[in-house]
Amino acid sequence: MSDSNNKLNQLIESTRQDAQAQQIRADALANRSTPQPRGKQIFTMVLATAFAMVLLYQFPRFSEPYMWPDPATNPAAAEADLIELVGLIETYRISQGQYPSAISQIGLPEGLAATIAASTLTYRPTDKAYTLAWTLPNWRASYDSQTEKASVEPLDKR
Q1: Range of the domain at 95
Q2: Which one of 71, 104, 107, 127 is at 20 to 30 Å from 116 when CA atoms are compared?
Q3: Cα 3 off chain centre by
Q4: pLDDT digits (tens, 9 = 90+) for 137-146
Q5: Beta strands of the chain (E only): which ranges?
Q6: Which CATH number fits the domain that encloses residue 144?
Q7: Who contacts 131 (Cβ-Cβ below 8 Å, separation ≥6)?
Q8: How many domains does the chain have?
């Protein structure tokens, strides 16, 4: 019994010494400060300089207030309204199982409803598709759900 106790005590002591040695090595590695390689320092400096140059070059654009696109010269607002209307029609179709018979059946947001009221919108539904023809103050927009083709053109074109 004493022989097995001695072996057990030796094993415990050996394990304790190994753990202490590992702890000393870990502490030494943690305290060692390794200098950054020269190439990495140069890359960091070049990257920081490039970033600073881009910021300085672009600063005038950041400091100016945002200018919304002019609806008379930029079709972005008309395209956004057309996409929103198409999305509302498709949402109605998914929820009700059919296309609305009239645009008035769709709950339109206040801004889009005002835009539609101030323009001419022709909506022609069928069982499986619909077409939109929309004349806005500066643009003519159209959409065909069968081909999923949308277009926005200036009014003076045609």
Answers
A1: 76-154
A2: 127
A3: 71
A4: 889 999 999 9
A5: 120-125, 130-135, 139-144, 149-154
A6: 3.30.1300
A7: 122, 123, 124, 142, 143, 144, 145
A8: 2
